[in-house]
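Researcher: Here's a chain I'd like modeled. Treat it as a single chain, no partners, no ligands.
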Amino acid sequence: MKYHLLLFAISALSLAACNNGKQSAFTGDVVSTAAPVGTIPEESIYNLTDTFTTQDNKTIQLKDFSGKPTVMVMIFTHCDYACPRLTADVKELEGRLGKNADKVNFVLTSFDAERDFPDQLAKYKKDMKLDDNFTLLHGSDDAVRTLSVLLNVQYQKNQDGNFSHSNVITVLDPSGNLIYQKEGIQANHDETLKKLNELLKG
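Model: Modeled as a single isolated chain. Structure tokens:
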């Protein structure tokens, strides 16, 4: 299986440590590409066959999100700095969509395969006051690593069990093609919102 998105993994993204109050200085656009919407094309992230488990302990594959635009973010729930703020950014983006928010998937996938099992993801969802538009995912180390490469999200595990990682919000079209990315915490998401509205208009 070929993934042209793997080319994005060549570029280096700064890592932000979640437990020391630092973040990447870059807040610009990471990538803005358009791909034709189709039935899971070759470039689609939805071609991944790995399974994930939701906060409700349901087993799914990424292709189960097809049919709607998707906002995808990688986090971990024990993060005490960057991840809550990144999640808040996505929550704010959802609010800006207004009545169209129900037409978009919001997916948070954890880096932390050892601790972020469904019950912990459910707790994070409740603590962050996320509604039913949000799905939180736990996957194996291999599944998470593969997804991170395709999304060009860099991360590494620290000695304390936490993670340093880039902070990237990704927009996928209904077929799972990567359309747009924005890096940075509390970044300006006017363009992100524009891309989502364009997708919603078809």
